[in-house]
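Side project, low priority. Logging it here so it doesn't get lost.
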Amino acid sequence: MNKSAWFGDHEFQIHFPSEWKVSVNDNKSAEANVLNDNEITSAFMNPIGSQTIKKLAEGKSEAVIIFDDLSRPTPVKQIVPFVLRELKEGGIDEDHIRFVAALGAHGFMTRHGFAEKLGEDILTRFEIFNHNAFQHLDRLGETSRNTPVFINQEVMSCDLKIGIGSINPHRLATFGGGAKIIMPGVSGIETIYSHHGLLVGLANKKINPTMGFGLNRVNTNEARADIEEVARIAQLDIKIDALVNPHREMVGLYVGDFVAEHRKGCELAAHLYETPLTTECDIVVANSYPVDDEAMKVTSVINGSLKEGGDVVLITNSPEGQMSLRHYISCRFGRNYDKCLYSNGDIYPKAKRLFILSDYPSRNDSDEFGPREKVISTKSWDEILKELTNTYGSNAKVAVYPHCLEYPKNSS
């Protein structure tokens, strides 16, 4: 398995007693063919529901390339050269191109993050800005679902808006990607809170019933519809969405209108990322790579596999800690008060114990995943295995999920 995405991508191994019944549950993305340059070029030359970037650039004066942060596995620096070539051929030179990190309510990216996402060459040639959800916003009205629309001023100052992201399973929006590069990507905090808190239902902990996994939910998901309405208001011109394997290599690429390309990409995503579950397991081992800083993404497969009173091993190796510690609407900012949508309930209610295997342990991270009395954090797999062996002896049923680009098979 791998750990520490964007921070070395180290390989590591875990082992189990030979008598245990262990199933490794992977999905088809691990076996998919990686795209070559000709296939990437073809996606740009044949956009879905849109003109090419070159054609869109003709007659335009200022371009912005909006890209996602390290909490998403998109290999942006592999995509950017194709975008820049199209812009040059369309008549926009480098001095009229800038990059904006679509942080939403996430914390700022550092130089390390920019270099990992964009490459050193881009850092030396172009201006790169972090999105600020609290300042420098344009008010553009509101959606039909009463979400106020505040959008990054730098983005709105450009007459050509290009987004780069990826399509991955998402427990609320069904799949990420598409218009999410705008909302929450470059939206104001009022927009994000209204959408996440009120429409999705995180504020009162009553999740909108249209949320959830599964291809059949994409077109009926109210969160997705609201997100896309925000992007239309903001006039996102074109979106590029990658599908990746567990090593963040592109196995699919969709370019075009942010709804049309997204729906087409979701068809492949549903095929690649749907993961079979082994149920009623004594032990579930789940690795959050390649999204180490959002280990919550493995919650569904863990809860679908674990038996009552079983044990969970959560592997998460982000040097920066969990994104929830750097998220302005879901982060706790003190001991006795919460900020907006923070919640630290028992997310694995069937688990007797939750072992967190991490090279970067912290109490704050541990508090995100469950009651302190049942969370055990360690850097050592051998320590965990000793505890599990003492409990289960020579008879244990184990499910292993080696990465988090997955959602449970047969999700409704």
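Brief comment: The chain has twelve helices and 20 strands.
Revisit when time allows.
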